[in-house]
Amino acid sequence: MASLWRHRPEGANDPVYFVRKSGCTFHRGLRLDDIARFKVAVTRIGATSLTFAVAIASGEKAVADLEIVWVAVDPASR
């Protein structure tokens, strides 16, 4: 899906996306050489918005949880 979205041609009426809301809960810190795993999921698809959940972990331990909401805006009205 990411490859399809990245390589599709832009349309004249494509919306522009803005971050409307973002939040983060930190559980623990990382060291410079720690390996972090990011798991991203779409948790809600609305009429004009997308909500993503991002879970960051190192080994079996949670590092942080994020929620990001994108809102689509008509480019002519922004």
Would you mind describing this structure in some detail?
By secondary structure, the chain is mainly β. Helix content is 8%, strand content 55%. The chain has 1 helix and 4 strands. It has a 4-stranded antiparallel beta sheet, with no helix packed on it. A hairpin with a 3-residue loop joins β2 and β3 (49-58). The two termini are 27 Å apart. The mean pLDDT is 89.
Summarize the entry for a quick read:
Helix content is 8%, strand content 55%. The chain is mostly beta strands and 78 residues long.
By DSSP (H or I, 4+ residues per run), the number of helices equals 1
The biggest sheet amounts to: 4 strands, antiparallel
Residues in helix, % = under 10%
Q: What's the gyration radius in Å?
A: 16 Å
Number of strands: 4
- Sequence of strands across the biggest β-sheet: 1-4-3-2
Report the portion of residues in β strands: over 45%
Q: What is the distance, rounded to the nearest whole angstrom, between the alpha carbons of the first and last residues? A: 27 Å
Helix and strand element order: HEEEE
Structural class label:
mainly beta
Quaternary structure type? single chain
Inertia-based shape: elongated
